[in-house]
Amino acid sequence: MSSSAVEPEAADLVCQLENVQGMVDSLSAVRWKRHQDAVVELSEHGIVLILEESNCLQAKVYLRKELFAQYDYNAEERPRFGVSLGLFVDCLSTFTVPGRATAIEIRYPGPDMQLLLKSLDSSDACIYAEIRTIIPDTVSWDYNFEPAGSVPLSFTVKSAALKEAIDDLEWPGSSIRINLKPAPPSVSFRGEGHGDLQIDLMYNANSDLLLDFNCNRPVSHRYKYKFLRATTSNLPSSVMKENRGSKLTIGRGGMLKVQHLVPVGRAPFPNPHVIDSASHQQQPGRIAYIEFFVKPEEEEDDARND
C-alpha cells in the first residue's frame, strides 16, 4: 500500500478555545515558581493539569469541556503527559492580544507527541507553536481528601482579602497557624516564628470579607508559609476585579483544600473561524476550577493538642 493511501491517525484531542487569555489566567494561578513540570490528563470531560511539590502541596486546574467552543475527544484510554508549565503558559501568552479576545486550537498528539497550538483569528495568517512533552516521572498521588467530621470545617473569604492576609504574614521559613472558632464565629491567621502578628476575620451579618463559615468546634492547624503562599501568590486580576470568593476547607488530619474560581470569558462577538458547539452556546458558567491541597505540619505534643 502506498504511503499516500495511509490514513493519518486521529488526534486524541482537538479543541478550540475562544479566548486564550482565560486559559493563561487559569494556568498562571498555579505557577508559584519559575521551573515547574506539570502533568496533563485528557478525558471526555475536559483537561486537568496537576502540579506537586515536596509531597506537601498539590495543585489542580480543571478545564471542563464546556469551556471550549469545540472539544473532540477520540482517545480509547485517557492520555497523560508531562509539560513545562512555564513554557506552556509563555506559548499561550504569545497568542494573546491586549484588549481583544483571541482564539486558538489545541491538538494532541503531534507527529512526535508534541502539544500543538494554532491561532484561529485570521484566514490570511496563522501562528503555530509546538510544545515538547515528556513522560511523567511519577504518578500524581491522590490526596484522598476526607471531611473532618459530620459538619464541614470550611469558610469562604474574598479572594483579594485572602491574598492580602497571607502576603502580610510573610516571613522566611515561618509557619502560619489557621484557627477556626464557632463562638464567636471567626477565622484567624497567625504567623509563628516572628512575634504575634495575627489577622482575624469575623463572621456576622455585616461581614463583607468572610462570606460563609461552617464550624462546630475549635480547630487549629499549622502550615508551612511557602506552601500556603503558593495558593494565592499568582491569582489573576480577573478574580480580584470580580470580587470572587475563595473557599478553604480543613479535612481529616488537617489537610487544607483551597478552591478558586477563575473566569474564562467568551469572545464578545462570534469568531467565524471557530466551530461553536451547541453545548458551548448554552453553557452559563464560564469558570475554570483551581484546587490546592496543602498538608499540615506535624504538631508537637504540647498543650495545644491535649
From TrEMBL:
Q: Which UniProt keywords apply?
A: DNA damage, DNA repair, Nucleus
Compartment(s) of residence: Nucleus
Please verify whether the record's keywords include Nucleus.
yes
Known Pfam families for this protein?
A: Rad1
- Cited SUPFAM superfamilies: DNA clamp
Listed under GO cellular component are: checkpoint clamp complex
Task: Give the signal sequence positions.
Answer: none
* GO BP: DNA damage checkpoint signaling; DNA repair
* PANTHER family given in the database record: CELL CYCLE CHECKPOINT PROTEIN RAD1
Family assignment?
Belongs to the rad1 family.
Q: What is this protein called?
A: Cell cycle checkpoint protein RAD1
Q: Which organism is it from?
A: Linum trigynum
Phylogenetic placement of the source organism = Eukaryota, Viridiplantae, Streptophyta, Embryophyta, Tracheophyta
